[in-house]
Amino acid sequence: MIDHSEIQGRLEKFQAAAKAAGVKLTHQRLEIFREVAASQEHPDAEAVFRTVKTRLPTVSLDTVYRTLWLLHDLGLVATLGPRRGSVRFDANLDPHHHYVCVRCGLARDFTSAELDALDIPAAVNSFGSIVAAHVEVRGVCRDCAARSAAAEPAAASPPEQEARRET
Amino acid sequence: MIDHSEIQGRLEKFQAAAKAAGVKLTHQRLEIFREVAASQEHPDAEAVFRTVKTRLPTVSLDTVYRTLWLLHDLGLVATLGPRRGSVRFDANLDPHHHYVCVRCGLARDFTSAELDALDIPAAVNSFGSIVAAHVEVRGVCRDCAARSAAAEPAAASPPEQEARRET
DNA sequence: TTAGGTGCAAATTCTTTGCACCCTG
DNA sequence: CAGGGTGCAAAGAATTTGCACCTAA
Lengths: 167, 167
Fold this sequence. Notes:
- The structure is a homodimer.
- By secondary structure, chain A is α+β, with helices and mostly antiparallel strands.
- Chain A folds into two domains: 1-93, Orthogonal Bundle (Arc Repressor Mutant, subunit A), CATH 1.10.10; 94-152, Dna Ligase, domain 1 (2-Layer Sandwich).
- Chain A has helices at residues 4-21, 27-38, 45-55, 61-73, 113-116, 142-151, and strands spanning 78-80, 88-90, 97-101, 107-110, 132-141.
- In chain A, helix 2 crosses helix 4.
- Mean pLDDT of chain A is 85; it is low at 155-167.
- Chains A and B meet through helix 4, strand 1, strand 3, strand 4 and strand 5 of A and helix 4, strand 1, strand 3, strand 4 and strand 5 of B.
- Chain A binds a DNA duplex through helix 2 and helix 4.
């Protein structure tokens, strides 16, 4: 997983930010933030909910949604995905890039000094200001590859109806 | 917009692909594909629906959804966004990159030979196979920048409740 | 003709909101 | 103690599906 001291650091940052913003530090918020901070899965709200519920059996899904967006507004988590709606959260605020499986949606961070220093064409400035740039790599993860190898030992896969999940 | 001959070429490619796959070429499919092929907006299903309806008043939103995913399965359109759910479609199949406005979601393509040849760290191979890599640039588009300049002539913007839409 | 495609409406799934009670500061 | 925060249930969006009729091939 993620280094324990890193998680600790993120939690302290959260506590400081919460105090600075004047929002309360509740159990729920702590656990929800801890979950995102400790995960490499870039979980969505539903996934965070499932895990946090094992520790706080009474949390509600709507609290998870509200808290994730609160964390986002506080600048403590970033999002992966285009806009509201099937968004996934990421507590890693350092520059990094994403690998996303086009079959199952698995997402992983990776870093690269070279990619952090991308040279964006000047033409892009005509669209508007640039806040950030990152690389998104799409592929088929190991598990999905293994899964299809198992399902179709050799035969051709049905050409229809099978791509369907995507970036 | 997009060069007319380019749109024409995409339409012909669609007709050939439809024949090859044995699917029927209906008015609806033609119009829906034309809309995606002619747009630089990377429209979502709802947006395609609104425009196509002006030409085919009886199309239904579900036909738009079904057709867009059909086009996707035929390899004629790509998607922008992480997975099913608030996905936006893109008929530009040449290598390219995206600019996305974090406020309003506006999306634009741009190309760069340098960015097409990104050097992906070897470590990424441990996640799975690589199908594609592209750069996503986030920023605030001209219109949104103008809009906030108008709304808040000089004063500090309310720190709370205003980021909220995002990649 | 005739299978695939469409429109409609209902069903799902995902996310947000209204409200009364609870807990942090 | 007071106001923000939470859980619950209901409201809204967004997307998919079942079915009977229609149409491209």
